[in-house]
Amino acid sequence: MPGLPPARLAADGTAYDACMSGAARRAQCLLPLLAARGWEPLLFVAERSAPAFTGLPGVEIVALPVPAHPAPLRSALAGPRMAEACRQRNIRVFLTETPPAPRGVPFVLTVHDARLWDAPRLLSPGRRWWLRRTLPAALRAAAAVVTPSEATAARLRAHLPGIAPLVVRNGADHFPPPAQEEVRERFLLAVGPWDRRKNLELLLRAHALLQPPLPLLLAGEPGIRLPAGVHAVAADDARLVDLYRRAAVTVCPSAFEGFDLPLAEALAQGCPVAASDIPAHREVGGDAARYFAPDDPARALEVIRELLAHPGGAEPRLARALAFPWQEAAQALDALLRRQLGAGRR
Question: According to a count of CB atoms within 10 Å of the terminal CB, is the N or C end of the chain lower?
Fold first, then answer.
């Protein structure tokens, strides 16, 4: 880092499952870019998730024998181990999205969405209880607060007027762009992980009305019995890119999001997108996606039909995705961390 000697930072990824959520992808993409800028990142993960992060350039992975869930048990087991590792390695800044953070280390808190205040019904009872117990205190104690969208930042400012979040948007360029416009096949795609906010019920209702029927592929296991014509598929990165490039339409039906990385990923592969009309989706998709109310399966069906009949060219979608480079996110986070490091040395 120009003007400052290299410093160690740590990030808490113990909540990440083996499947690649948006939060996990964010860490996977940003930490190597911070390493390239002179930081010495360390990422704590649960042992079961470690293979997904092994080999990140410049990032030390520390696998802990802890469960990703439930959060209180994870925190109780991981907290002391992370605190000790931070002391041993002279960690100067800690990145977390799952408070509490180790004591004695300044921490930057990433808040991905405002469900706790705006849509608590979309959190499991256990997660809702844990966030109410830990998040308000963490927001007050954090050296800085980061969000992945202006939509989330605006809601935090509304609920907590003393908070001044920094918007560091996710990127969309972690997969290679298509070399040419792909031939679209007759199937729909939607991408998990499938927690409550993803609004799978609406998607299934809309799909059931589609005539003639088309297959619906769900990337990720939803954990429910699926109706005829709907198939859950395991998708590593190569498979996911292939699905984005071949799908007739990617559907993003979420009732609530802080960013929604699959929407950005689909646009970056030129895929037509039908998305629920929520603030984060509008911020990410702009005019390159088509929208429906998140409680209106008939309108969702209508938008899907319109895109099947008139998908348009890929150029506007590819152009929209270019607005979300990971390097820009890393630059903003790097500047914030430098400020925190400098403040700690004064």
Answer: C
